[in-house]
């Protein structure tokens, strides 16, 4: 497939859409997806195979110190890493169904590490550890590219008990929003625990170092979130589209775009979760999420549910007949 400029690719893609045997706009968002992918890949034949999924896993001292912020104990993170590797997690099942490799990267399941702290104190991780995590994310993408036959789409996910608390604090910091506006119930904390979670996010926002996107990430982020920031930066450099999952991955996108504006050009957004902060983050990124299905699982599951839409958008764009080829006179 011939490489052309992003603008030229989009122009040609819209031109082809106007010639396909259908009323203009009748395939709705599928048309927009095809055009966006054409622009990112700089081609007149966008494709999303081969695709790959990377899950970054980490734990958070805020859960150890304040277990009420999550409906599940911190030990579930390591158990879920094993579940991914055994193929039993929701995203593992979907990856297998799609014939897509899933790589799980432990960037911080252990919290007994120098430089790791409680986000409530604005000291989630040292700057050195933050940058190491970003670099780990970049390396994971480059490794997946090296072991694929021309990676065409990257799907990112995460595993980390308590990381909706992280996402809320990070989103609040980047957007300048209050804790109440960005904090939801995650995987289902009850009212008493929600009050504790809200207080934790409020304290984090009081102590965050808001000097830059990177300092905010180090202050109130997580190592898996930092790794996803790095993964997005690498994907943008390699002109690989990224299908963004839910709230936690979107919080990483906020930071990545603040650090490198060009990252926004390669992002597509799979779904709008039930987290209120996610909706604010999507709006800030001018993102049109493909699905709204009340999802709250994470681990790239929403992106993997949306993946067939991207595949079908490309197939329709590339394979449908034009009016001329079908011998139909357009009036």
From TrEMBL:
<dbReference type="InterPro" id="IPR036087">
    <property type="entry name" value="Nict_dMeBzImd_PRibTrfase_sf"/>
</dbReference>
<comment type="pathway">
    <text>Nucleoside biosynthesis; alpha-ribazole biosynthesis; alpha-ribazole from 5,6-dimethylbenzimidazole: step 1/2.</text>
</comment>
<dbReference type="InterPro" id="IPR003200">
    <property type="entry name" value="Nict_dMeBzImd_PRibTrfase"/>
</dbReference>
<keyword id="KW-0808">Transferase</keyword>
<keyword id="KW-0328">Glycosyltransferase</keyword>
<dbReference type="Pfam" id="PF02277">
    <property type="entry name" value="DBI_PRT"/>
</dbReference>
<feature type="region of interest" description="Disordered">
    <location>
        <begin position="1"/>
        <end position="25"/>
    </location>
</feature>
<dbReference type="InterPro" id="IPR017846">
    <property type="entry name" value="Nict_dMeBzImd_PRibTrfase_bact"/>
</dbReference>
<comment type="similarity">
    <text>Belongs to the CobT family.</text>
</comment>
<dbReference type="GO" id="GO:0008939">
    <property type="term" value="F:nicotinate-nucleotide-dimethylbenzimidazole phosphoribosyltransferase activity"/>
</dbReference>
<dbReference type="GO" id="GO:0009236">
    <property type="term" value="P:cobalamin biosynthetic process"/>
</dbReference>
<dbReference type="InterPro" id="IPR023195">
    <property type="entry name" value="Nict_dMeBzImd_PRibTrfase_N"/>
</dbReference>
<protein>
    <recommendedName>
        <fullName>Nicotinate-nucleotide--dimethylbenzimidazole phosphoribosyltransferase</fullName>
        <ecNumber>2.4.2.21</ecNumber>
    </recommendedName>
</protein>
<keyword id="KW-0169">Cobalamin biosynthesis</keyword>
<feature type="compositionally biased region" description="Basic and acidic residues">
    <location>
        <begin position="1"/>
        <end position="13"/>
    </location>
</feature>
């Amino acid at each position: 497939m011939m490489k052309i400029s992003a603008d030229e690719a989009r122009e040609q893609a819209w031109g082809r859409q106007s010639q396909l045997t259908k009323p203009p706009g009748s395939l709705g968002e599928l048309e927009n997806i095809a055009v966006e992918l054409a622009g990112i890949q700089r081609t007149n034949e966008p494709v999303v195979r081969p695709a790959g999924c990377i899950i970054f896993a980490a734990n958070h001292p805020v859960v150890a110190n304040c277990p009420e912020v999550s409906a599940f104990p911190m030990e579930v993170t390591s158990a879920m890493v094993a579940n991914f590797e055994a193929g039993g997690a929701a995203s593992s099942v979907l990856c297998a169904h799609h014939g897509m490799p899933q790589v799980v990267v432990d960037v911080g399941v252990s919290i007994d590490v120098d430089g790791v702290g409680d986000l409530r104190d604005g000291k989630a991780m040292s700057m050195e550890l933050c940058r190491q995590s970003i670099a780990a994310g970049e390396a994971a993408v480059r490794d997946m590219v090296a072991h694929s036959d021309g990676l065409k789409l990257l799907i990112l996910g995460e595993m980390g008990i308590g990381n909706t608390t992280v996402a809320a604090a990070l989103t609040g910091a980047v957007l300048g929003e209050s804790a109440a506006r960005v904090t939801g119930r995650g995987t289902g904390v009850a009212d008493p625990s929600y009050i504790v979670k809200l207080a934790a996010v409020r304290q984090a926002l009081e102590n965050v170092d808001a000097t830059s996107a990177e300092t905010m990430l180090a202050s109130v982020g997580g190592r898996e979130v930092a790794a996803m920031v790095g993964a997005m930066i690498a994907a943008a450099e390699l002109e690989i589209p990224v299908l963004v999952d839910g709230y936690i991955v979107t919080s990483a996108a906020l930071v990545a775009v603040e650090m490198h504006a060009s990252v926004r050009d390669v992002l597509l957004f799979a779904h709008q979760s039930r987290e209120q902060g996610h909706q604010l983050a999507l709006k800030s990124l001018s993102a049109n999420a493909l699905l709204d299905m009340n999802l709250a699982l994470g681990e790239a599951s929403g992106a993997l549910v949306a993946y067939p839409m991207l595949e079908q958008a490309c197939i329709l764009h590339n394979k449908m007949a034009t009016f001329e080829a079908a011998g139909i006179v357009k009036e």
